[in-house]
Amino acid sequence: MLLLMLEIGLTIAAWKRGWKGWALLPMVIGFGAAFMTGLFMGAAGASDGEAFGVGVIFDIACIGALVAMVTRPRKTTETTQNFTVNIQPPAPEAEQHASQQP
Hints:
- By secondary structure, the chain is mainly α.
- Helix content is about 75%, strand content about 0%.
- The chain has 5 helices and no strands.
- The chain is elongated and about 85 Å long.
- The model has no long low-confidence stretch (mean pLDDT about 85).
């Protein structure tokens, strides 16, 4: 339960560091992989202790990915952050010149 709370806290921190929806990806992949592995291990007759150990490994991998996201904010280009559009009407001379041509 503590690992889940840690993962949720790290996901929120990664979201605030600029990763937005990408911050959810480690948890989705981790839970999906842990579920599928547990399903196959259960079908193969593995014990609960073995399945728990594999689940902890997936949790640690998820936490590692989230820590990496929190320590390195997402890189963005300046053109997307400071992009402004300056639209001005055409000069009156250009309109007259365009209307005089055949």
